[in-house]
Amino acid sequence: MSIMQEAIMLAPEIIKNRRYLHQNAEVHNDLPITKKYVKEQLIAMGLEPIEISKSSLVVNIKGDKPGKTFLLRGDMDALPMAEQTNLPFKSETGNMHACGHDFHTSMLLGAAKILKSKQSEIEGTVKLMFQPAEETLSGALQMIEGGVLENPKVDAAMMIHVFAGIPAPTGLVLYMVDGPASASSDWFDIKIQGKGGHGAMPNMAVDPLIAMSNIHLGLGEINSREVSPEKFLVVTPCMLKGGTTGNIIPDSAFMQGTIRTFDDKVRELAKKRVKDIAEGIAIAYRCKAEVNFYRGCPSLVNNLEVRDSVVKYTKELLGQQAVIDSSTIPEAGGGRMSGSEDFAFISELVPSTMLALAANAEGNTFPLHHPKVQLDEKALPVGAAIYANSAISWLKEHK
Ligand SMILES: [Zn+2]
Ligand SMILES: [Zn+2]
């Protein structure tokens, strides 16, 4: 039986798995129900999943013939938001799989079953990476520290992300035009220390809100005056807090924001300048600013050789027309995504690639991360087949 035929035959099971995961959505690396379920499914297939960091699972499917190791990644975490769909399997946990990671996990379970049935044809090892905490950009790093890339050592890796809210038929596969596929992400916060006082006597106080307002404006100049127009940079303060009422000058103020770019040099420049500008402006207004960066994640960089191989295999699987360059759909980000993806940490260490798979349910106009987004389950067997086929084909071609 071909990989595609097998995936289609497995569709009811993949859909059942997806609905269970959707209904029991969990977040970050706190995935007791999800992990237990995935583990049970894998064991039922005769596989031996191991947990290498909190709520993660790794499975090696060793073929009958020797060869290299190809890693397939599926993330398992949801978002802390209440679902607003009327689906019969709507989430019951107060969290929602609004990023489609329930799709990724069930597709990878489907691929596991296909790969297990084709074990004699595998020339090397396929390693399955069931990852927690993608949305908090920390799960991949925890799994790397747990040894996901060792024993056996991983030679190449791939991931799939579904997408919705964009005009593309279900099952259409997009690949990224060049290396950088997703933006790097850094969160920052700035604490501004002034001196509180009476609103009627501002001269007796040092107002941190004046410093904060000017820092907010100053950060906008990094992009407009210090970065080439060809480069992409976002510096967005998204939270400004200070004060409690109308007649008290607060003692301190606090702001928080995010930096996104595709270029390592721009990333370093932006971080340096956020710090310089915040500290400098604070001093100018007699305050003191303390700047912290956290939740950093680099840009996901496609290895073009791995990308071209996987694109070739996927065209063989689905047909030439079904796999297109992502820049042909401007709504999809014109060839890359300004969002971040923590598979980036894997892509820094082994040659890697990502594919995007269209899964827009009929009538859905909402994007991922929206409480009403609905995905099309017809994409599930397609995703499972792409995973399995990419791994088997890559190993065959790279002995
Ligand atoms: Zn997401
Ligand atoms: Zn996601």
Spatial separation of the terminal alpha carbons: 24 Å
Q: Average pLDDT, to the nearest integer?
A: 96
Query: Nearest-angstrom radius of gyration?
Result: 23 Å
The CATH architecture assignment of the largest domain turns out to be 3-Layer(aba) Sandwich
Small molecules bound: zinc ion
Instruction: Assess the beta-strand content as a share of residues.
Output: 15-25%
CATH topology of the largest domain: Aminopeptidase
CATH superfamily of the largest domain: Zn peptidases
Whole-number count of domains: 2
**SSE-based structural type:** alpha/beta
Give the tally of β-strands: 15
- What does the overall shape look like? elongated
Q: Could you explain how this protein is built, in words?
A:
- This protein has 399 residues and is α/β, with parallel strands linked by helices.
- The chain contains nine helices and 15 strands.
- The chain folds into two domains: 279 residues, Aminopeptidase; 114 residues, Alpha-Beta Plaits (2-Layer Sandwich), CATH 3.30.70.
- 35% of the residues lie in helices and 24% in strands.
- Strands 1-3-2-4-15-5-14 form a seven-stranded mixed β-sheet, sandwiched between helices. Strands 9-11-7-12 form a four-stranded antiparallel β-sheet, covered by helices on one side.
- Helix 3 links the parallel strand 2 and strand 3.
- It starts with a helix and ends with a helix.
